[in-house]
Amino acid sequence: MPRKKSIYTFLQAQVAAFLGGVTDYGLMIVFTEVVKLHFTFSILISGTVGAVINFSINRFWVFKNQSGYSSHINSQLFKFALVVLGSISLKSSGTLILQKVFQIDYRIGRLITDSFVSYGFNYPLIKYWVFRVNEKQNVIESN
User: Fold this and answer.
1) Which cellular component appears as one GO term in the record (predicted)?
2) Cβ atoms within 10 A of the Cβ of 121, count?
3) pLDDT at residue number 141
4) pTM of the predicted model as reported, rounded to 2 decimal places
5) Domain span at residue 122?
6) Phi and psi for 108 in degrees, rounded to 5?
7) Does 143 fall in a domain?
8) What are phi and psi of 69, to 5 degrees?
9) How many domains does the chain have?
10) What is the SS3 assignment for 23-62?
11) Under 8 Å between Cβ of 137 and 67
């Protein structure tokens, strides 16, 4: 049963990442192609919006970690913000490297970079650091 729950949580997290990611990617295209910002700046703005969506879905649906304690959410927001900063930095630099060094279009480079950052950086940190629930919290919140 724990393995089944773990797979279900992983799939839910992928839905959250997908919804945040689609928003992020779409806004990146709009800011780059329509507003004419350099794609690294577009990624910063669009990544922030996508992160808000991702955080909300993860907190209230995936990890159901919605304790009423404001310090608890403040801690999660702080940790999530650090993950987002790392994620945006990795996505921007990875996309830039693929574009400059390998002449890969930024839209394709972004998709390649995102796949590595999402599974190798974002998911583990979000699951095991941002929304980690220790046994003490489980006992308190279940009462």
Assistant:
1) membrane
2) 15
3) 44
4) 0.77
5) 2-134
6) -75, -45
7) no
8) -75, 120
9) 1
10) HHHHHHHHHHHHCCCCHHHHHHHHHHHHHHHHHHHHHHHH
11) yes
69: phi > 0 → left, psi -120 to 50 → alpha, else beta; which? Answer: beta
Does residue 138 surpass a pLDDT of 60?
Answer: no
Residue 109 lies in a domain: yes
The Cα–Cα gap between 16 and 37 comes to 27
Query: Residues of the chain with pLDDT > 90: what percent?
Result: 62
Q: State pLDDT tens for residues 23-65.
A: 999 999 999 999 999 999 999 999 999 999 999 998 888 887 6
**Does some domain include residue 141?**
no
Q: Backbone phi, then psi, for 2, in 5-degree steps?
A: -60, -35
Q: Quote the pLDDT of residue 70.
A: 52
Distance of CA 134 to the CA centre of its chain: 22
Q: Is the dihedral of CA 132, 134, 137, 143 positive or negative?
A: positive
